[in-house]
């Protein structure tokens, strides 16, 4: 290993990984990743879902310990065994779903946030200092506001401020613009530029090639737990990136949707618009899986949010030919739509309730008679679902928060199976799910379709869309750019479309 020996060798990379490996129970997420992050550069990290991006940054920020390999800081090996270790080295991250301490003000979050028992000063002094920091960063925000009142964008900016004043050396941004407006993106990019000028190294994870080109000095592309390539700014082209991202041998899940749709249109959507989504129309027949893909934040999520009654929308929606009005999640459910959101922990499960109770929740009306819930019937019902979905561990009484992401996802799906919905909407159903559970989730989705439901699958994973869908739509920058049977589009073409490329379809 040719690591520079001199400490503070300003010519060498700030941080390097050498043959980094990470073995999880079912899978090897990193198979020897060697990458170099230079001082004062914005380094893009790209790769398809499951390529290992999150695992790599979680190792750098002390969330996971590596199973092999080394991390070098200024040429010297460092041990990062906890987030505190990472923090001491000056490595920090802002995750997409960045969270602050809700009961604290902006100022308290900036100064006290990560420092339990830190030096205590008066509230006035804390807020004065926070105001100074935000001023230095060029952010206008009332330091006395409670964190719980901040938008997603403001939360990210405040999280950045907590890193800014601690003079972090390496900051990871995980899909930071997914929930930001164009104006907010400009503010964020301005900040990134300031960090860069101060010599901070930024690792920027994104699927948006336009943004990557705009701010990244170099990028590293991961594929199947390995470095596929590192490119300089001038080498970043759509074709090159797509080619380097696409796995040559994708693991065969031996699942395919050969088409179960029958003639009857169940879901008929006309001129639906919501948020950044421009009006679009589509129909889903009984037994059909419609896959909607595109970059995260590009508008595909709005389809699910509108149909799930989470966001306001315009347009006409018919189910089984009858017009329905959806203005709330309850209204959506009453219309026959079950939505399995991505943010399942917060939106769909009660973490402290048992697995059985979570699963039986929507069924309690049917299972109770005269307001009494027959405990035995509830258990029998829930156990049936648990068996059918192979939820692990097979412990109905265990609070659902103790299950892994994949098994929580099964619990959410199980919860809606009994609801006998006409339309099922899945949003990123395998995000954060361990590989073992992916196949069962896929089989369950196809089973719902086979049983005659109309299924809408919203996913940023091209592979998943190709595996499960009968029909595919691509939404980019709020526009529908592709809508055709799956057979008319290859995996590579989908990826290109999702990255914002012009359609290169034969049709
Ligand atoms: P990316 O962020 O590029 O989408 P990840 O780093 O999240 O990829 O995942 C890489 C691989 O490791 C995937 O196959 C994923 O299923 C697996 N994986 C990630 N986290 C875990 C975990 N905690 N347990 C088991 N497998 C995991
Ligand atoms: Mg990830």
Which keywords apply here?
binds magnesium ion, alpha/beta, disordered C terminus, Rossmann fold, six-stranded mixed sheet, disordered N terminus, 33% helix, 22 strands, binds adenosine-5'-diphosphate, globular, 507 residues, 24% strand
What does this structure look like?
Helix 15 (405-417) runs parallel beside helix 16. Helices cover 33% and strands 24% of the residues. The chain is α/β, with parallel strands linked by helices and 507 residues long. Among the domains are: 15-100 and 150-245, Rossmann fold (3-Layer(aba) Sandwich), CATH 3.40.50.300; 265-352 and 421-498, Rossmann fold. It contains 18 helices and 22 strands. The protein has helices at 53-60, 83-89, 106-112, 123-137, 152-164, 182-197, 209-215, 238-245, 300-307, 329-334, 344-347, 355-360, 364-367, 375-388, 405-417, 435-450, 462-468, 491-498; strands at 15-23, 28-37, 42-46, 68-73, 76-78, 91-94, 170-174, 201-205, 218-223, 226-232, 265-274, 277-285, 289-293, 314-319, 322-324, 337-340, 368-369, 372-373, 423-427, 454-458, 471-476, 479-485. The chain has a six-stranded mixed beta sheet, with helices on both faces. It binds adenosine-5'-diphosphate and magnesium ion. The site of adenosine-5'-diphosphate has 15 residues, from helix 1.
Short account of what is shown:
This protein has 18 helices and 22 strands. The protein is α/β, with parallel strands linked by helices. The protein binds adenosine-5'-diphosphate (ADP) and magnesium ion.
As laid out across the biggest beta sheet, the strand order is 6-7-8-3-9-10
Structural class: alpha/beta
**Radius of gyration, CA atoms, in whole angstroms:** 24 Å
Estimate what percentage of residues fall within beta strands. 15-25%
Please state the average pLDDT score: 84
Any idea of the CATH topology of the domain at 15-100 and 150-245? Rossmann fold
Count of strand segments = 22
Any idea what the CATH architecture of the domain at 15-100 and 150-245 is? 3-Layer(aba) Sandwich
**Continuous helix count:** 18
The largest pleated sheet is described as: 6 strands, mixed
Ranges with pLDDT <50 over ≥5 residues? Answer: 1-9, 248-252, 503-507
CATH H level of the domain at 15-100 and 150-245: which superfamily?
P-loop containing nucleotide triphosphate hydrolases
Q: Would you state the CATH class of the domain at 15-100 and 150-245?
A: Alpha Beta
| N- and C-termini, Cα separation | 51 Å
**Overall 3D shape:** globular
Helix content: 25-40%
Q: What are the distinct ligands in this entry?
A: adenosine-5'-diphosphate, magnesium ion
């Amino acid at each position: 290993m040719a690591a520079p020996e001199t400490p503070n060798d300003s010519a060498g990379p700030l941080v390097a990984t050498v043959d980094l490996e990470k073995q999880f129970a079912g899978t090897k997420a990193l198979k020897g990743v060697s990458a170099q992050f230079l001082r004062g550069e914005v380094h893009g990290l790209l790769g398809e879902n499951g390529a290992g991006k999150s695992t790599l940054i979680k190792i750098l920020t002390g969330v996971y310990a590596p199973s092999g390999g080394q991390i070098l800081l200024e040429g010297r090996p460092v041990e990062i065994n906890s987030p505190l270790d990472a923090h001491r080295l000056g490595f920090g991250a802002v995750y997409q779903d960045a969270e602050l301490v809700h009961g604290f003000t902006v100022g308290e979050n900036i100064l006290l946030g990560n420092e339990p028992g830190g030096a205590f000063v008066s509230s006035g002094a804390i807020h004065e200092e926070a105001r100074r920091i935000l001023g230095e960063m060029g952010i206008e925000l009332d330091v006395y506001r409670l964190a719980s009142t901040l938008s997603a964008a403001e939360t990210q900016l405040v999280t950045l401020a907590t890193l800014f004043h601690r003079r972090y050396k390496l900051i990871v941004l995980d899909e930071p613009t997914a929930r930001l407006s164009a104006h907010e993106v400009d503010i964020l990019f301005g900040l990134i530029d300031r960090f860069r000028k101060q010599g901070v190294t930024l690792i920027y994870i994104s699927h948006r090639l336009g943004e990557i080109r705009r701010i990244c000095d170099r990028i590293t592309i991961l594929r199947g737990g390995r470095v596929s390539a590192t490119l300089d700014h001038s080498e970043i082209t759509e074709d090159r990136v797509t080619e380097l991202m696409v796995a040559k041998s994708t693991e065969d899940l031996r699942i395919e949707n050969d088409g179960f749709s029958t003639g009857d249109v169940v879901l008929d959507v006309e001129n639906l618009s919501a948020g950044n989504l421009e009006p679009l129309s589509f129909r889903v027949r009984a037994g059909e899986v419609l896959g909607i893909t595109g970059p995260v934040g590009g508008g595909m999520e709005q389809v699910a949010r509108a149909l799930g009654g989470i966001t306001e929308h315009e347009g006409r929606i018919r189910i089984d030919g009858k017009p329905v009005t959806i203005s709330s999640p309850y209204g959506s459910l009453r219309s026959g739509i079950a939505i399995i959101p991505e943010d399942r922990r917060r939106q769909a499960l009660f973490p402290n309730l048992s697995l059985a109770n979570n699963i039986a929740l929507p069924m309690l009306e049917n299972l109770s008679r005269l307001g009494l819930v027959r405990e035995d019937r509830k258990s029998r019902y829930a156990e049936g679902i648990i068996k059918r979905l192979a939820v692990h561990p097979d412990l109905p009484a265990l609070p659902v928060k103790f299950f892994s992401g994949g098994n929580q996802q099964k619990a959410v799906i199980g919860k809606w199976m009994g609801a006998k919905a006409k339309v099922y909407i899945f949003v990123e159903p395998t995000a954060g799910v361990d590989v073992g559970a992916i196949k069962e989730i896929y089989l369950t989705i196809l089973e719902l379709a086979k049983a005659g439901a109309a299924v809408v699958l919203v996913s940023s994973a091209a592979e998943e869309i190709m595996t499960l869908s009968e029909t595919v739509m691509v939404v980019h920058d709020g526009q529908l750019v592709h809508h055709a049977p799956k057979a008319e589009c290859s995996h590579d073409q989908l990826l290109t479309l999702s990255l914002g490329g012009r359609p290169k379809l034969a049709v």
